[in-house]
Amino acid sequence: MTKQQDMSRRKFLTLLGGIPLAGIVVSSTSVFTQYLYPPESLRTPPKPMEVAVEGELKVGELKEFEYNDAPAVLVQVKEGEYKAFYRKCTHLGCVVIFNQEQKVFDCPCHGGKFDLNGNVLAGPPPAPLTQLAVKVDGGKIIVSERSA
User: Fold this and answer.
1) Is 43 a domain residue?
2) What CATH number did the domain enclosing 89 receive?
3) Of the ranges 11-15, 72-76, 85-89, 119-123, which one carries the lowest mean pLDDT score?
4) Residue 8 maps to a domain
5) What is the DSSP-derived secondary structure letter of residue 88?
6) Which one of 86, 97, 121, 138 is least enclosed by Cβ atoms within 10 Å?
7) Is 68 left (phi over 0), alpha (psi -120 to 50) or beta?
8) pLDDT tens across 44-72, in order?
9) pTM of the model
10) Pairing between strand 140-145 and 120-122?
11) How far apart are CA 11 and CA 54, in angstroms?
C-alpha cells in the first residue's frame, strides 16, 4: 500500500466517524431550540381589544389596527356583520394592502389577492387570511384570537 492510499482511507474513516457526531449535534440543537421557542399551544393568547364602535364603519369599509404586534384590519361585510383578519399574506407573510377600487386585499410580494372575507382569489397563497374573532358588546367592536 502506498502512503497516498493510507491517507485517503484515513480521511474516509474520519468522515464516516464524523457523521454520527454531526447527527448528535443537530438533534441536540433541535431539542434546545424547542425549549427556547415553546409550541403555539403553550403561548399566552393576547387579550381581547376594542377596535371600533358600531356605526363607525359602513358596509365595505375597513379600519386598520395593530393586534398582537401585527397589522390587522376590521371590515363590515354586511350590515351588523364584522370580520377581522391579520394583514399578513399566508404565502410568505408580506403585509397585504387594501385595493379600494377593486375591494380586495393585494399582496405586493407575489400577486396574491384576497376578498373582503379573507378568501384567496388569486396567486400563490395556500390559505385564507388568518381570521380574528369579532364580538359586538354594548356597541363596542372587540377582536380576539380565535380559539382552536
Assistant:
1) no
2) 2.102.10.10
3) 11-15
4) yes
5) B
6) 138
7) left
8) 778 999 999 998 999 888 899 999 889 99
9) 0.68
10) unpaired
11) 73
C-alpha to C-alpha distances, 89 to 21, 62, 69, 102, 126, nearest whole angstrom: 40, 17, 16, 18, 9
**68 secondary structure, DSSP code:** T
Q: Are residues 60 and 127 in the same domain?
A: yes
Q: 120 is written with which cell numbers?
A: 384567496
Q: Give how many domains the chain has, as a whole number.
A: 2
Q: List the grid coordinates of 35.
A: 425549549
Task: Kindly give, in sequence order, each residue whose CB lies less than 8 Å from that of residue 129, ignoring residues fewer than 6 positions away.
Answer: 85, 86, 87, 88, 89, 90, 96, 105, 114, 118
Note whether 81 and 11 are same-domain residues.
no
Helices (H) then strands (E): counts for the chain: 1, 10
Q: In the predicted model, is pLDDT for residue 3 greater than 90?
A: no
**Are residues 33 and 58 both part of a single domain?**
no
